[in-house]
Design goal:
By secondary structure, the protein is mainly β. It has one domain: Jelly Rolls (Sandwich), CATH 2.60.120. It is 12% helix and 48% strand. It contains 1 helix and 15 strands, in the order αβββββββββββββββ. Strands 3, 5, 6, 7, 9, 11, 12 and 13 form an 8-stranded antiparallel β-sheet that branches. A 4-stranded antiparallel β-sheet has the order 1-15-4-8, with no helix packed on it. Strand 5 and strand 6 form a beta hairpin. The longest helix is centred in the N-terminal third of the chain and has 25 residues. The termini are far apart.
Length: 200
């Protein structure tokens, strides 16, 4: 009888460890952004590219809360404009760092381009290697040579995106003159993995 109770205690002890360990693993990842769209951006007739960055937002966080690494990103297809005759959209994840001057950002990360059908719905892409980011960096999206869904309208004036035409620059480039759009959220989401104590 005694041995049976001890075995049971050991099993319950291991089970308790597993239950406690799982939440900490999931807590290490934070979802950011909102991959939804009801507005297209025409890059085909505006220099071949259009970049949007979420300068401020309410309810949905586009800013990195801590230093870390982005492991994947998402975009919603399905709101292509009329200048998209081949039925595909091409997009890239951008990460922008505010310079401290209104409408001015430095591009710190640009993902490989991804092309998908305008009817594909939600698309998620793994980042290999992951993208190192810092607290305060902002999610953005580049539309490349297509007329694709880029923004989602909201009713909140504090949801402000900024846009600029032309192909995305090389990381490290500062771009001035982003035009603000109030009541819009960028059609992009990503997962942030926080750095562990050992990685800091």
């Amino acid at each position: 009888m005694g041995k049976g109770l001890r075995r049971g205690s050991i099993v319950l002890g291991f089970a308790g460890v597993l239950v406690l360990a799982l939440p900490s693993a999931f807590a290490n990842a934070t979802p950011l952004g909102n991959a939804q769209t009801n507005q297209h951006c025409d890059a085909t007739t505006n220099g071949g590219g259009f970049s949007v960055v979420q300068g401020s937002s309410v309810g949905v966080n586009y800013a990195m809360p801590t230093n870390g690494r982005l492991t994947n990103w998402s975009v919603m297809a399905g709101f292509a404009g009329p200048n998209n005759p081949d039925g595909t959209e091409t997009a890239q994840l951008e990460v922008w760092r505010p310079t401290g001057t209104t409408g001015s950002y430095t591009l710190v990360f640009l993902s490989p381009s991804q092309t998908f059908s305008t009817t594909a719905g939600g698309q998620t892409f793994t980042l290999k290697p992951t993208a190192d980011v810092e607290a305060g960096d902002l999610l953005g999206l580049a539309i490349i040579n297509s007329d694709a869904g880029c923004l989602q309208s909201t009713s909140n004036t504090s949801d402000v995106a900024g846009g600029t035409f032309g192909p995305p620059p090389a990381p490290g480039t500062t771009v001035n003159g982003f035009v603000p759009f109030s009541r819009w959220q960028v059609n992009v989401a990503a997962t942030l993995r926080h750095r562990t104590q050992r990685e800091r």
